[in-house]
């Protein structure tokens, strides 16, 4: 296993939809292991393959069901898609490993149903609410070429983009 570099905004790959995975092979299993190590090292709740520079529709996540419960353990979703949404909620103080040092309130669905396959190719259907629903929406957004800053007000988004541009210019 190896720690992978996390790609950060404004890297172009983060703005492009990911390719669907057709075969689960040894390389993909290695990628899952490396992404897992990277997720826990970061630390984060979820990590999409695109966030480590890999153009594949896959994500890993580990979310406790609520504040009082332990981790549910690592889960892998390949080619996930949201097939049902319900209700509205604001994800307060949402952040992202690919958008460092910035947090914002983000409009999300309160409940989602997600379908995909696991790392063994078995079909998976997840009915999620609360934090899990937010994490799944956030990570699936990555696979569709969207960042959470694409879902906030244009004023807040432009302030962040200016700050990043200024920092990049200062780095030379």
List the helices and strands and how they pair.
Blueprint: H1 26-41, E1 46-48, E2 58-61, E3 75-96, E4 99-117, E5 123-129, H2 130-143, H3 154-171
Antiparallel strand pairs: 1-2, 2-3, 3-4, 4-5
Protein name: Peptide deformylase
Catalytic activity: N-terminal N-formyl-L-methionyl-[peptide] + H2O = N-terminal L-methionyl-[peptide] + formate
Cofactor: Fe(2+)
Encode the helix/strand succession as letters. HEEEEEHH
CATH class: Alpha Beta
Strand order of the largest sheet: 1-2-3-4-5
* Measured distance between first and last alpha carbons: 33 Å
CATH superfamily: Peptide deformylase
Low-confidence stretches: none
Biggest sheet overview: 5 strands, antiparallel
Which architecture per CATH?
A: Alpha-Beta Complex
Strand content: 25-35%
Shape label? globular
Kindly name the structural category: alpha+beta
CATH topology (fold) name:
Peptide Deformylase
Rg, alpha carbons: 16 Å
Count of discrete domains: 1
Q: Number of helical runs?
A: 3
């Amino acid at each position: 296993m190896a720690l992978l570099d996390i790609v950060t905004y404004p890297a172009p790959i983060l703005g492009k939809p990911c390719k669907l995975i057709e075969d689960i092979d040894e390389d993909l299993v290695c990628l899952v292991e490396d992404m897992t190590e990277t997720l826990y090292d970061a630390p984060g709740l979820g990590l999409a393959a695109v966030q480590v520079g890999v153009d594949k529709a896959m994500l890993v996540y580990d979310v406790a069901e609520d504040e009082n419960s332990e981790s549910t353990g690592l889960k892998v979703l390949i080619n996930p898609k949201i097939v049902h949404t319900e209700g509205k909620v604001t994800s307060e103080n949402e952040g992202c490993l690919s958008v460092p040092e910035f947090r914002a309130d983000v409009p999300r669905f309160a409940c989602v149903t997600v379908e995909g396959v696991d790392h063994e190719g078995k079909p998976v259907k997840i009915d999620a609410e609360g934090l899990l629903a937010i994490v799944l929406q956030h990570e699936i957004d990555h696979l569709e070429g969207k960042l959470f800053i694409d879902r906030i007000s244009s004023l807040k988004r432009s302030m962040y983009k200016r700050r990043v541009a200024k920092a990049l210019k200062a780095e030379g």
